[in-house]
Amino acid sequence: xTTRNANVAAAALTAILLAGCGGGGxxxxxxxxxxxxxxxxxxSGTGTLAFTISVPTTxxxxxxxxxxxxxxxxxxxxxxxxxxxxxxxxxxxxxxxxTGSLSIPAGLANVQMTLEDAGGKALSQGTTxxxxxxxxxxxxxxxxDGVVHSVSLQWVPAxxxxxxxxxxxxxxxxxxxxxxxxxxxxxxxDANDNQVVIKLSSPDATVNAALQSYAxxxxxxxxxxxxxxxxxITVTPxxxxxxxxxxxxGATLYASSLANAVWVPAYPPYSAIYAYVPPYTxxxxxxxxSSNGAPLTYMAMDTSGNIFATENTGLGGNGVEExxxxxxxxxxxxxxxxxxxxxxxxxxxxxxxxxxxxxxxAPPYTxAAVATIPMNASAVNFALDAAGNxxxxxxxxIAVYRxxxxxxPTTIAAANAVNTNAQTTVSxxxxxxxxxxxxxxxxxxxxxxxxAPPYTxxxxxxxxNASIPx
Length: 470
Fold this sequence. Notes:
This protein is mostly beta strands. It contains one helix and 40 strands. The strands form nine sheets. Strands 4, 6, 7, 9, 10, 12 and 16 form a seven-stranded mixed sheet that branches. Strands 1, 2, 3, 5, 8 and 11 form a six-stranded mixed sheet that branches. Strands 18-15-13-20 form a four-stranded mixed sheet, with helices on one face. Strand 39 (about 445-450) and strand 40 form a beta hairpin.
């Protein structure tokens, strides 16, 4: 651990820790000495050690002294061992600032400070000598090293969307006991003040050979590794010095084309689109974001890879966003409405409002709707087949509209007497069977009608135990 000799001036010790604690971890901090007056050291008399620890809520960076103050800091435990052997300790409560003082015998003293969470668990700590001068003010500088509880690895990027040879970056993060990432310029230590050293390994021989030159003992480690077309790379951390009682979490980098991705809108309040690539067990790729920051609800993709998503009206959105490769940055193309959305193979965009209608737009979607289709208030969605025919649930069955969607529909009648409610959802399975769901046909049940092509015969009929749309 690094220590600093005190700058001796007089009988009060003032340690001002300037710390950045915004977000999910600690930031660079420093100790700034207060001004003092001249005095004389000696073994008689006492001095007052006054501590002021500042814990800002936004990051402050300084290179004057390396420090780590966790966002979870609620108290500072201070132990002072005087030259005569007397031990004095106190615990200083912290909110955005913590203050306290101790009366210490004059002479050379050893000051240990541990910043703790609400449960008294160590987050960072440091020790330094200071010469207490009777009757005067004394200044001290601390180096507070982060106490490592667990280790995690992070790939940048999280997923490769190509299998072409390149290099990738691996971040090595050490976390304190409350899960904050330790970020500053000093060393990693354990709860017993022993240095922590992290080594890495991989089953991939080429990657493993590159990892052997790295021993991580401080924050900010970014390791550049070769990638030569593997479907995945796994790296695992181990601790070769010090004691880490928490999880040592490895990380796997997956590589695949976005052409095989599964796309989903991010969970509110986030406004991005997530892409999961084969084998769909790794980290998603966050792709693009809506133009106004609104979370997204329904989503569809055309044959060119353009994504269309509806904004969440309950969280400040209203309309449809288009996301185009390669950047997938959202552009609002329809400024009002909410509901399910579909795109036909010929490029028609279908935007449904379950309380009124389905609006149909032709490329490039800048003009008014070319047609509107009535949509039953109890209907949840609609479906398109490979030919672009539109299937809409109604109270009497399923209405089928054919391009250009301006004529009267044909109707697939409701299946049978047991199915007397409105058919609320329709979809196609992998064999192009038309699946219609009547929700709440009876309390706690729903009915599935499955029509085989060309959808003119009597469907198979299944009663479910819950009202779950297909």
